Amino acid sequence: MDIGFPYRVDARGCTASVDHVSHVRDMVELVLFTSPGERVNRPDFGCNLLDMVFAGNSPELAATLEMTAQAALQRWLGDLLTVESLTVTAEEATLRVHVAYLLTATGENHAVTVSGGVPS
After folding, report:
1. How many CB atoms lie within 10 A of CB 109?
2. Angle, to 10 degrees, between the axis of helix 59-77 and the axis of helix 20-33?
3. What would the pLDDT profile of 13-57 be if each residue is shown by its tens digit?
4. Domains in the chain with CATH codes
5. What's the rounded Cα separation, in Å, for the pair 60 and 45?
6. pLDDT tens by residue, 107-117
7. What pLDDT digit, counting tens, does each position of 76-89 carry?
8. SS (H, E, C) the chain
């Protein structure tokens, strides 16, 4: 079992724990939603997704985000997962990021999709 994110306590007053699959999914979302400079001891952690949500939506923005998100996930979570695909689509006012990955520990395939800055 791993520590749940965001940090919380369970009904017994202990640190909440989650299974490994949920923990890695939480960490993928953490990398996507953290802006570089936000973490004091890791100023280069994150991929700037939240700032790009408010930028002018375009195919160029989608391509830039694909590269930065892929690099951030590889750098910070490369020992836990292998990104199989990462696609960013820009449709009208919506920016959608889909990450398909393989868990290193189990070999299982999983995916995370965030749309307009909200996990789905």
Report:
1. 11
2. 130
3. 999 888 999 899 999 999 998 888 888 899 999 888 877 766 667
4. 2-119 (3.10.450.40)
5. 22
6. 999 999 987 64
7. 999 999 999 999 88
8. CEECCCCCECCCCCECEECHHHHHHHHHHHHHHCCCCCCCCCCCCCCCHHHHHCCCCCHHHHHHHHHHHHHHHHHHHCCCEEEEEEEEEEECCEEEEEEEEEECCCCCEEEEEEECCEEC
